[in-house]
Amino acid sequence: ANEAYCTHYLSIHTNGSTGRASGVEVFYRDEADKAFGRELVLPSLVSATGLRSRGLKHESESVRKRLAVFG
Q1: What is the pTM of this model?
Q2: How many CB atoms sit inside 10 A of residue 34's CB?
Q3: Any idea of the CA torsion for 23, 19, 29, 70, to the nearest 10 degrees?
Q4: Is the pLDDT of residue 1 over 70?
Q5: How many angstroms separate the CA atoms of 22 and 67, rounded?
Q6: CB 29, CB 36: distance < 8 Å
Q7: Which alpha helices (DSSP H) does the chain contain, by range?
Q8: Per-residue pLDDT tens over the stretch 17-63
Q9: How far apart are CA 57 and CA 44, in angstroms?
Q10: Long-range contact list for 30-35, CB < 8 A, 24+ apart?
Q11: SS3 call for 31
C-alpha cells in the first residue's frame, strides 16, 4: 500500500450470519482512515447494500490483529 502511494487503508467485511454478526463493517489503521471510513465509506456501503452497519473497528479488533495486503 505504501509503495502504491495509498492515502487511506481500509478493510471492508461483510458478514452473512443470520445472528448478530450479520452486516458490514470497516476496519481502519489510523485516525485519518477512521474519519474517512466514518464519513464516506461505511455510510455508502450501508446505503448501497442495505446491510446493517456493524461499525468501524480498529485493525487490532480483527482476527489477524493487523491489516495487510497480500500479493
Answers
A1: 0.79
A2: 18
A3: -80
A4: no
A5: 21
A6: no
A7: 31-36, 42-49
A8: 777 778 999 999 899 999 999 999 999 999 999 999 999 999 888 76
A9: 17
A10: 32/8, 33/8, 33/9, 34/58
A11: helix
* CA-to-CA separations, 31 to 54, 55, 58, in angstroms, rounded: 18, 15, 9
**Distance in angstroms (rounded) separating the CA atoms of residues 70 and 48:** 27
Residue-wise over 46-66: b if at least 16 C-beta within 10 A, else e? eeeeebeebebbebeeeeeee
CA 63 to chain centre: 13
Burial grade of 42 (CB within 10 A; 0-12, 13-18, 19 or more): buried
Q: Which of 56, 66, 49, 47 is nearest to 25 (CA)?
A: 56
3-state SS assignment for residue 13:
strand
71, three cell numbers:
500479493
